[in-house]
Description:
The protein is of the alpha/beta class. It is 41% helix and 22% strand. The strands form 5 sheets. The protein has a 6-stranded parallel β-sheet with strand order 5-4-3-6-7-8, with helices on both faces. Strands 9-12-13 form a 3-stranded antiparallel β-sheet, with helices on one face. It has a 3-stranded antiparallel β-sheet with strand order 14-15-16. 1,4,5,6-tetrahydronicotinamide adenine dinucleotide binds next to helix 1 and helix 4.
Amino acid sequence: MAALQVGKAEILTELRTRPKISxxxxxxxxxxxxxxxxxxxxxDVVLVDVVEGIPQGKALxxxxxxxxxxxxxxxxxxxGYDETAxxxxxxxxxxxxxxxxxxxxxxxxxxAEIVGSVVEQVVKRSRNAILILVTNPLDAxxxxxxxxxxxxxxxxxxxAGVLDSARFRTFIARELDVSVENVTAFVLGGHGDSMVPLxxxxxxxxxxxxxxxxxxxxxxxxxxxxxxxxxxxxxxxxGSAYYAPAASAVEMVEAILKDKKKILPxxxxxxxxxxxxxxxxxxxxxxxxxxxxxxxxxxxxxDEQAAFDKSAAAVRELVDKLKL
Length: 324
Ligand code: TXD
């Protein structure tokens, strides 16, 4: 609270100078989202988790890196939601990873329960926030969050495509021995196995990779990208990827807060685009201060449309299981 002197009248007003970004789930992805967010000075961060002490400890630790890195963002850790009030953006990473003996469906229902309760708590206190979902199974969790929140679809977005395309870009850059900055990649569809990369729109300095690499090489890079998460889990044994997922979520946060109108692949609500209606699926969107400001639709070739439809059907199956 700050006291402003205007003539004789003293007006008490809340001076909020920095955006507020809340991160729910202070695990591997959540803590890294907090880290990258403050390192880029995108705003103040509130970290929330059910485990006592974890969000508080990580927030304090990150705050103490501030003097070294030179950021002034404030960091707060909590087991409750009051500190998240009036957030500009809420990144939801809360959930469980699949444990031995747990089926994909077990995970679906458990994470749906967690994400449902998180969204309920969040929206009560931040009516105007933009929600970015990270928890898996991603596409179904975004659909759930949108339903639960009652928010317009442009303010509920899923992170997956930025990560999938970052993985694809890494592999293309390594293969051709060029800078990752020269590589763009175009990825559609649901997260993971059913992802649909479009090589003819993936380029190196504007040149389609179809002109630079043989078809079988491209196919092997595509397969590696689709299995990108599993490849890392196999190395880590317990836990899954978090640096690149967090960096990807923060690219979305930055595009929104800076109103960059950046075109990024995100899980967005389709109302007929790409022949799909009433479902969240990964497509290129324009991200700005209002969230998803436009869905970029391109004309797909027959085989691409078939792959997209297959991917959307896989998402629909999960959404139906949750009766959304
Ligand atoms: O591309 C993508 N979308 C993804 C998705 C890329 C990477 C990770 N992806 C998924 O994100 C992953 O499959 C998980 O569903 C989430 C979070 O992954 P992370 O690696 O961060 O998992 P952790 O380290 O287990 O952290 C999860 C945290 C942990 O601290 C729990 O205590 C907390 O979530 N948790 C909760 N916080 C708040 N409220 C509730 N109810 C809750 N339940 C668990």
